[in-house]
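ENTRY TYPE: paired fold submission
RECORD: A
CONTENT: sequence, then structure tokens
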Amino acid sequence: MLCPGARGAVESNSMEPFDVVKQYHEQTKHDFNRYARALGYMDWANQPDPFRRYEGAPLYALPLLEANDKPVSPPYESLFSSPPIPAQPLTLNSLSRFFEYSLSITAWKEYGGNRWALRSNPSSGNLHPTEGYLLIRETAELPLKPGLYHYAPKEHGLEHRWHGSNEIIEALLQPFPAQSFFVGLSSIHWREAWKYGERAFRYCQHDVGHALGTLRIAGAVLGWEVFLLAGLNDRTIGTLLGLDRLHEFDRAEPEFPELLCVVCPMPTLLPPLPPPHPSTSLRAGKGGEQEAPLPFTVDQDLIRHWEHGDWRGKANRLSRDNPVPWEIIDDVTKASWKTSTESSELPWFSSPAPIRELAETEPASVPDSRPGMVSAHRIIHQRRSAVAFDGNTSISAQQFFTMLERVMPHADRPVAQRPMPWDSLPWLPTIHLALFVHRVDGLLPGMYMLLRNGDPALKGAFQQAMHEQFVWTVPNQCPASLPLYLLEDGDTQRIAMQLSCHQEIAGDSAFSLGMIAEFEASLEKHGPWFYKRLFWETGLIGQVLYLEAEAAGVRSTGIGCFFDDPVHRVLGWHPDTRFQSLYHFTVGGPVEDHRLTTLPPYGELRPLP
């Protein structure tokens, strides 16, 4: 049961960060007899405002575009096909589209006098702990001054937080393709902790992964490339986003830096570059040729100039009363803080040979029923988190295999040649899928495992750690490129529901899954800061599945509440902690709640016809 008033803390004074992270993960597990600690009731009077604003910062409204306004969205399926979508020029309209498809409001819902917003980026409990920022130089194409902007989703506008030297910003962006700009993400832990208590840090991190996915997909719609600057440390990101200016937060709830991406609207036009830095890698051109090195960090000497310039605005307070303190979240935040700027430890382009036990003949393909010309705009705008499934709807085997293909990063390829959105992550995949298949036509119901990494030793490591009775056979219709294995056939609806905190959505769906991390090996290889990256990868998988479900005519939802070690026991490796389930997901036929009224996202801001 929930523990009212419990705050929790890791005895971290004498512990190494690696041990603090592991202890946090253990302490925040749900079990059949004990949920992770939370407040124990909903303090509605203190619910955080889902919209951060910087009072006193000028707001620049972005154009509110209709579906047919330029730039017009390509078909959703074209995001994953060749040749790549032609790059749109950087204009105020294309910048507006980028934020519309990544972080904006897509609809309002209304019921019983209450009104709440839905956004392009999914969020646990619709609490939206993730904030977005833009760092851009002065360009002739944009009526924006150089500097740092905070994206305000309620207004679909940019708050000008810092007006800095264009020369400094130019120098910072000089190693990147022409017209490139930075987009950053931060987390407000309190927004999730208000409801979910000590487990909130986990949810904030896979929400960052969702948002990273929406950034990359928004870029793909415009023909732009988006790369995670994984070599940066958290202090640098905090400085660039203005989050270390504590006097401008005063009594407001703090934000914590998460990541910085470079967005490249003109990826083929690269300026002359200095010799490669240790934390750079050669990019592969569209034809496979090598282009100039693309850094995964920035010039640290330029960061000291961030104190100069004109800083504007103070963060608004989100809750009426002070946030309930959760010391355990503070402890894991500190322990997972990335202090290094070296990225050489990450295997940017080194990839193992792919594993696959090929069938003697290729299976016959099953026709995919999804319409090929539905626009990405429509799929992005209609994405919703299902609240219930009908327990009847099935999907075809081809639809199921297509969804799984879309979450495969193809680790045997150089990063820049991996499919979107996996070209944005410069590390080898660490997350695999344990699937509970209920209603997939042509596929036996049962438990399956999808291995997303091409490491030849991985299958053997999983087999050794899991139950001996699992059969590890390849389904008959499975494409030869998909490393999917049947573990055990049978009805898994009840066990899927029980493992997901007794939630019927896990059993009433077409299939559900747990996202399984190579937990200990990843932390030992990279360090405790990689704990957050594990969740980012799960969130990115989740965002792909959200859109894929919509494209297949069904719906999906993430499941943050699941019984951690019971999942591990079902799969066979508890108390072994080499592998850990971090996030669950489910896809099926939705039950619509017709009591709710749907309203347009920015109806009040649009002029009357």
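RECORD: B
CONTENT: sequence, then structure tokens
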Amino acid sequence: MRLIVVGGVAGGMSAAARARRLDESAEIIVLDKGPYVSFANCGLPYFVGGEIEKQESLLVQTPQRLRAALNLDVRPEHEVTGLDAAARTVTVRSAAGEQQLSYDALILSPGANAIAPPLPGLDSSRVRTLRTVDDAVALKELATDARRAVVLGAGFIGLEAAEALERRGLDVTVVELAPQVLPPLDTGMANLVQDELTRLGMTVRTGVAATEVRGGSDEDTVVLGDGTEIPADLIVLSVGVKPATEIFEAAGVACERGAILVDEHGRTNLPGVWAVGDATASLDPITGARRTVALAGPANRAGRLVADDIFGHPTARPIPAPVGTAIVRVGELTAAMTGANKRTLTGAGIEHHTVDLHPNQHAGYFPGAAQIALSVHFRANDGLLLGAQAVGIEGVDKRIDVLATAIRAQMSVSDLIDLDLAYSPPYGNAKDPVNLVGMFGQNVLDGTTRLWYAQDLDDVRKSALVLDTRSPAEYATGAIPGSLNIAHTELRGRIDEVRAAAAGRPVRTVCASGMRSYIAHRVLTQAGLDSATLSGGMKTLRAWLGSRTREELKEGKSL
């Protein structure tokens, strides 16, 4: 058996290593067009920023170590330029010239390339991408003498690059075509991240595109669609990636929007050809839509399972559809997500509820307690978990990982109540935030709690009485115009005032983070009033409003 793997790094090298463990007699050849076949792609921004000091630390394995440990024939700087599926050969170009190699089984793991939009001036030497070790080395060297940087694209890699450059002392401007940074996040969560970028001293421009990079002798100028001109010594292009599949698609490999179509075992439409990693399309387990998931974890796991399928391992199983769990550090904050966001669910026509909470990451009485902004989506009819997002200083990774596991296990929101999670004051709460999501979600499912959401603000102001259940001092710091302020502790004795002010209208309650307004909601409901409570309270509302907060929430007056 001769197995050829095209492309190393996550998917390809995982497949090759697993293949060797399954078959000592197989000839396994790994071809990679770059100089490094196994490097820490996700560590590149931290090398640029100086947290990872040595370039060698980015190299997970070398061809020599892979030969010694696994007897793999790893050939860097060998670019595959052609595929003949009928003859089962690939054409390879290297410094020694061009040759054809035959295979019995072929794994395609070509990865993805940075998208270069058709902008004048992108050929400037000051414009860089961040996809390879060489990219990182060049970017770090260029940043040494730079003072101002522009990062085009505010996705995960773009923000990691922006933070790395900010750590090096550069004046950084982030430009994003979408109306928010980190487009996969829901609006409120993204606004929290943008606030942190601003706190770090970065300039953030959203909802606008770059139209030109104008070269100059001492500096370049990035021109935006609104006419703004931003001088830059360094420009990072991070507007997305596209599968590097042109050669294979031309050879007959079925693709959709450039991504290789594979079955549940990673098989392509061509006999003897499998594919893994960033270049493949996978099914979204929440919506059923095809998409690419450019994450190292799913690529590694798929590589292992493809090798199992090729070598007929007795426990070979299908490749699970990745839920897309991702995390990023921005300054003092961590932002993470798993599953579908609200826009995706709405676009797919999936009826769902969302609960927004602001629990502490550990016991409130233990020093250092800080709130996590936590948002969880679940199906309206049965509570099936669909997605979750969190932003906070600590404890975000733990909660999102638990929720990612729950989504993978197809648990319902009510199942979260009974999860037995580790508790000690420095680490969590007796009622962990994940448990609280379950309690809150079950209340929504069974009708104990009725919610209204930040995006409903305009409609609520027109059609309902907004009852603010915070203290008068809190109310004075900013409130929904026209709202009635009665502290939740006084509500039971003032129901008639609420009834009179409502004048037959529904009552929509609000407090700082949702707990007091929930208590008020239960009081009002049992008093016979049409009531609902704001999911996540003013904290979620402020995050959703973002830069519009000051104009929308005027200084209140207690009644």
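NOTES ON RECORD B: The mean pLDDT is 95. Residues 127-239 form a domain with the FAD/NAD(P)-binding domain fold (CATH 3.50.50.60).
STATUS: closed
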